[in-house]
């Protein structure tokens, strides 16, 4: 489950300036599709439409054949997960931070998610800045480690569809390797839509869609697109 389809999607924030001029693609269940293109091409708009922050003026978006316009907002939130690039941790244990969104999860499930995200060694730790009456000091996590907490949270929540929007992130704080590792971890067996600036971070995508001036300019595997350059 989790197939996502854009069917001739047209969208403009203001009528005189169309952003998407008829975009069609399918992310088959369990596959990873990357959207790349220059800044302002409309990449993040695609994820905003998928979350129904906005509605297309023409065309449809479907999940497993059902138009998202007919899906309740709460079901849509459960079906689509998002890994933010800038994770702000709650002032509590890493375990609590992983459980956020699914507090009833068993300890075994939490441990498995933490193991996959490779943060199981500090699951009981407190993040830096955590203050208690005895002045206890927390653990300083790097940007990449904080992102791993968000990844463990997403793995535990287990949405069938995942959106990774790198386009709006503070890229400087992450190495390309960290982003790629994160991607490989969360996208395993899940339908994944990656919004990226650079072809180099999406090498492993099943298909790459190049967006330009509101249209799909090119599409294909990483190798095919490189060969065409
Ligand atoms: P990308 O992610 O490819 O950089 P976006 O999808 O964020 O591009 O934006 C596409 C275009 O839409 C940009 O020119 C941007 O300025 C414009 N845009 C984004 N949000 C709004 C908005 N709320 N109102 C008007 N224009 C917007
Ligand atoms: P921008 O920085 O361009 O104004 P935002 O920071 O509002 O965009 O959002 C970045 C991306 O994250 C958007 O494309 C949107 O799809 C997604 N997003 C924002 N808030 C949420 C949310 N609460 N749940 C899921 N996705 C979200």
From TrEMBL:
Spell out the protein name for this chain.
ABCB family ABC transporter ATP-binding protein/permease
Q: Which family does it belong to?
A: Belongs to the ABC transporter superfamily.
| Covered residues, full protein | 372 to 600 of 637
Q: Report domain ABC transporter positions.
A: 4-229
Q: In which compartments does the protein localize?
A: Cell membrane
Q: Give the originating organism.
A: Bosea massiliensis
């Amino acid at each position: 489950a989790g197939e996502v389809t854009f069917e001739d999607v047209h969208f403009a924030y203001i009528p005189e300036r169309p952003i998407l001029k008829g975009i069609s693609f399918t992310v088959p269940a369990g596959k990873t599709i990357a959207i790349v293109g220059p800044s302002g091409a409309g990449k993040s708009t695609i994820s905003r439409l998928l979350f129904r922050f906005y509605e297309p003026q023409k065309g449809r978006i479907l999940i497993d054949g059902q138009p998202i316009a007919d899906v309740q907002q709460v079901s849509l939130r459960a079906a689509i997960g998002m890994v933010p690039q800038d994770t702000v941790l709650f002032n509590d244990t890493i375990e609590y931070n992983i459980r956020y969104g699914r507090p009833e999860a068993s300890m075994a499930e939490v441990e498995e998610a933490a193991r996959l995200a490779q943060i199981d060694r500090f699951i009981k730790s407190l993040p830096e800045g955590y203050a208690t009456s005895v002045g206890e000091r927390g653990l300083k996590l790097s940007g990449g480690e904080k992102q791993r907490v968000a990844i463990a949270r997403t793995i535990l929540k287990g949405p069938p569809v995942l959106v990774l929007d790198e386009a709006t992130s503070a890229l400087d704080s992450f190495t390309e390797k960290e982003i790629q590792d994160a991607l490989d971890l969360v996208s395993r067996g899940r339908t994944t839509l990656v919004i990226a600036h650079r072809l180099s971070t999406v090498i492993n995508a099943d298909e790459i869609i190049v967006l330009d001036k509101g249209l799909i300019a090119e599409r294909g595997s990483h190798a095919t697109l490189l060969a065409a350059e």
